[in-house]
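Service request form, structural biology core

Requester: graduate student, group of Dr. S.
Request type: structure prediction, single chain
Budget code: on file
Notes: please return the result as structure tokens.

Sequence provided:
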Amino acid sequence: AVVHAAGVLDDGLVADLTPERLARVMAAKVDSALHLHELTADRDLSAFVLFSSFAGVVGNAGQAAYSAANNILDTLAATRRAQGLPAVSLAWGMWEAGMGGRLPQADVARLRRGGLPPLAAREALALMDAALVVNEPNAVPVALRTSALSGGLVPSVLRDLVPSAGRRWGAAASGGAADGGGLVERLRGLGSVERDRVLLDAVLAEVAGVLGHASAGAVDASRAFKELGFDSLTAVDLRNRLNGVTGLQLPATVIFDHPTILSLRDHLGAELAPSDDGDTAFLMGELDKLRTVLAETAPAADDDVRAAIGDRLQQLLATWSAAALQAP
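Core staff response, request fulfilled:
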């Protein structure tokens, strides 16, 4: 029997892939599998087992090269079976050991929340035995918690397994409406100070979710995403969650274009600024700033200063009221 279990990860955005990075992933998965196929084609094998990956089935963010390599293994198994040769390609979910055992705990926690807990070695070997009995070239031994899938991200290939599968893969977010309507409604009519606070809370909640924190309070808003431990994969995850919360179609590079939580908050604020009442929101924001300044300076101001400021405010109000009466 032949068991091909080699694999190399080199995750990253498609835009960052180079021929060298692609070749490195393909060499471990594809080249070695093809060599084994050619060298054993005339042998009387009892089994020819290829370790593929669930990433090739659902298409994990940042794993274009790895997904493609595993898809080739799946195709090789089907080709061998068509030639009358033994073969099965196992599109494994994450194991507790091996590559899965080397993942950061935040990534493991994120996968668990998405309904994909890791397989214990004992469970995985039992699934392998079952797959060898089934007369099919491809099998998908993976642990799925459909209850988590129904409340979160649903890959299109899994929608038949989940009752409420209307939310698309990569477009959901923790507690946010899928079209962003909830957040947009909350922002409507707020001044700039309050808008900034609501947007910051929304960003912090999604950052905490990606990093596996129990609450947004565990995230330091003053730190850059890189300092918080973000990489290309978690950046895409955050982008997907923000798309779901805001209803925007943010680019995959948005976290790198706006590398701090505050700069990302400001970018979202600009993208979500209403076009029909933008002037109103601006004026309300300026009034918020004025109120803050007055509250900070009033205790130290003497009576003459307070009286002068009060007179000026009364004049502004009178001017505003007169202009409103003259408006058509």
